[in-house]
Inverse folding.
């Protein structure tokens, strides 16, 4: 009963986290409409590319397992598309080789992943092992990507167009995932617990940085130095 309850709660918060990703995209669109110079300057390409890979991996995994898991697949597909749109906005704003490769890579993965889901075979026996290994890799990449984003904010003394709601809503999802993993049990839930804990810590740091840039004299000095 508890597993079903917390699983349902976690699914609800996964959908809520989509609002956070869309909020980031909307922030970029608003910045463009206001003709802000380089609205994506302080957005980490590495962080958003890793976020895309995380959502995309779960999207493919949900299609590959038996039975087909709608709760895993469709929210992650929507999130992958939204993050791909953010990568597109970063590419439009910067237009460098790295941004081009990241965008093309995301598009290719979406196409190939969808074809795999339509034409590929499912797996059952090795599913848990593959999932655990995949989550460990994703966790490491997420930590690195968000570390890069945190460095950018601290260096600039500003959050730029980074959206606070995205971090807040994803943190809510992480907390619900931690609760769900604990209900499942450490033996089976440790990969989810690992991913959600690391992700949650990075979101807490970023949320703190939104306060830091407002109250820290050091952050203010960095912003002033950037304008002189």
């Amino acid at each position: 009963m508890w597993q079903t309850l917390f699983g349902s709660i976690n699914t609800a918060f996964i959908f809520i986290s989509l609002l956070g990703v869309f909020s980031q995209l909307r922030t970029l669109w608003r910045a463009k409409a206001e003709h802000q110079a380089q609205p994506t300057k302080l957005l980490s390409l590495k962080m958003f590319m890793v976020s895309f890979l995380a959502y995309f991996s779960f999207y493919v995994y949900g299609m590959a397992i038996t039975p087909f898991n709608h709760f895993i697949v469709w929210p992650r597909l929507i999130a992958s598309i939204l993050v791909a749109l953010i990568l597109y906005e970063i590419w439009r704003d910067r237009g460098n080789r790295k941004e081009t490769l990241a965008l093309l890579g995301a598009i290719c993965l979406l196409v190939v992943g969808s074809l795999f889901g339509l034409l590929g075979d499912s797996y059952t026996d090795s599913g848990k092992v593959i999932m655990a290994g995949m989550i460990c890799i994703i966790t490491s990449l997420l930590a690195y990507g968000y570390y890069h984003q945190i460095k950018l904010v601290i260096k600039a003394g500003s959050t730029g167009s980074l959206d606070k709601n995205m971090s807040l809503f994803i943190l809510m999802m992480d907390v619900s995932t931690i609760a769900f993993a604990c209900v499942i049990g450490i033996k089976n839930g440790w990969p989810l617990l690992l991913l959600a804990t690391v992700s949650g810590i990075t979101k807490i740091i970023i949320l703190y940085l939104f306060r830091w840039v407002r109250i820290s004299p050091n952050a203010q000095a960095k912003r002033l130095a950037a304008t002189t």
Q: What stands out?
A: The chain has eight helices and no strands. Residues 2-227 form one domain. The radius of gyration is 18 Å. The helical segments are 2-33, 45-64, 70-94, 97-119, 127-156, 164-184, 186-215, 217-227.
